[in-house]
Design brief:
Elements (H helix, E strand, L loop, with lengths): L1 H5 L6 E3 L4 H4 L14 H17 L6 E4 L3 H4 L4 H22 L4 E7 L11 H9 L9 E6 L9 H13 L7 E6 L18 H17 L4 E2 L7 E4 L5 E4 L13 H12 L5 E2 L3 E6 L10 H12 L2 E7 L2 E7 L11 E9 L8 E5 L4 E3 L4 E6 L2 E11 L4 E5 H6 L1
Parallel strand pairs: 1-2, 2-3, 3-4, 4-5, 5-6
Antiparallel strand pairs: 7-8, 9-11, 10-13, 11-12, 12-18, 13-17, 14-15, 14-18, 16-17
Helix pairs in contact: 3-5, 5-6, 6-7, 8-9
Length: 399
């Protein structure tokens, strides 16, 4: 913990259990500690109190459990009620050791989506209805989707309504775990797909931008380096989720993609709705073509994902096509029109590829005045199957 703090990393801790001195030679890791025995329950509370006191000032954020919706057998509602009890007991113990502890309930595998497998909205409604309001400071969820774009505004709005129903409007949401492996592997999230280094980097960018658009206070990538997974039967298996490979710890393209996001969003980035940009046919595409050809060109642009952020007063724009990551699509060009607040900052724009970290200066930039308003028109900007960023030149010079 000291090492992490020394390099300006603020750790947060997921508290789980399994100490063999308390639970025996084969810890019941799939069982709630409150149900093992009265002795185990008391040991759990004491452990958390001492833990919070020991790391006070170094670790003040604690997530209670990891993916309880996957861990406990039994009837669904009983399991959620049991998890809520664990949150209450654990929160009180942690705050006894550190009165300022920030407590995250959840760690939920179902995320903020209403999938057939996980029943995310029903699960959250049941959990929040168990009287946990005073025990938590935030709610954490995991996000593993081949298409992170599957969670859209209606799902987020529905989840927010669940929070409001229980008097938890404004509760911070943390995306506590998300990503994909850099190669095929037999188990774990998004395994058995033909991933590679390049696909992993593109997926990382898409996943984290979607997190931010959904209003996540924190977006966590799983994980820094590859590791070896120890299965319950004692066998080992490599997990290739890292920004760094194992065993040589080489930087993957995803490392540079993540580094770019950290640089762009350093400080506090927020969504910015006062600026609008749209993508249109290029000059070449406006020549005489058939109706079918024109529709095909526009069809590619209909599904483009667009993001507008602001950081330190500077707007940052990003866009991409959410195509199948296993069938990459070549870049194509667009005319971009930017209007609204701070649009004129893009009269001196720079285009960033966050994976290669290359910067380009667009050659054809014009200021247009329309009915008393001003907009900026930029020709021949590419669209890829992962986010590219348009930045004001002054943002880069002041970074």
């Amino acid at each position: 913990m000291d090492k992490l703090c020394s390099i300006n990393i603020r750790p947060w801790m997921c508290v789980c259990f399994g100490n063999r001195r308390i639970y025996g030679p084969e810890p019941p890791i799939r069982q709630c500690p409150l149900t093992v025995s009265p002795e185990a329950a008391a040991a759990w509370e004491k452990y958390l109190e001492i833990l919070a006191a020991r790391y006070k000032g170094r670790v003040d954020h604690f997530e209670i459990w990891n993916e309880p919706d996957l861990c406990w057998d039994g009837e669904h509602r009983q399991s959620i009620a049991l998890y809520a009890d664990l949150v209450k007991v654990s929160s009180a113990a942690l705050r006894k050791g550190n009165k300022d502890a920030f407590i995250l309930g959840g760690g939920i595998a179902c995320g903020i989506r209403n999938s057939l497998r996980y029943n995310g909205f029903a699960l959250a409604d049941e959990f929040f209805g168990q009287g946990v309001k005073e025990y938590i400071n935030g709610y954490s969820y995991h996000a593993y989707d081949v298409f992170p774009e599957m969670v859209q505004a209606p799902e987020v709005a529905a989840f927010r309504r669940v929070l409001e129903k229980h008097g938890l409007e404004g509760l911070p949401l943390w995306q506590g775990e998300g990503g994909c492996p850099a190669k095929w592997q037999k188990d774990n999230a998004l395994s058995k797909h033909p991933w590679d280094d390049a696909k992993q980097a593109r997926h990382l960018l898409r996943n984290m931008l979607c997190d931010l658009r959904h209003g996540a206070e924190i977006s966590s990538y799983f994980m820094l380096s590859d590791f070896t997974y120890r299965y319950a039967n004692g066998t080992l298996g490599p997990c290739h989720y890292g920004l760094l490979s194992h065993p040589d710890y080489q930087r993957r393209p995803s490392f540079y993609a993540y580094q770019s996001l950290c640089e762009l969003f350093r400080g506090r980035v927020e969504l910015y709705e006062d600026i609008l940009f749209s993508l249109h046919k290029t000059d070449e595409e406006r020549h005489e073509i058939s109706i079918e050809e024109s529709a095909a060109i526009d069809a590619k642009r209909v599904s483009i994902e667009r993001f507008s952020f602001i950081n330190k007063g500077f707007p940052l724009l990003a866009w991409y096509r959410p195509v199948n990551p296993h069938i990459p699509e070549p870049m194509f060009l667009n005319t971009m029109v930017i209007e609204g607040e701070k649009a004129e900052l893009f009269l001196d724009p720079l285009l960033l590829d966050p994976i290669t970290q290359e910067l380009w200066r667009p050659e054809r930039v014009e200021k247009e005045e329309r009915w008393g308003g001003v907009r900026v028109r930029i020709e021949n900007l590419p669209t890829a199957d992962y986010p590219l960023f348009l930045l004001p030149g002054t943002f880069v010079s002041q970074a």
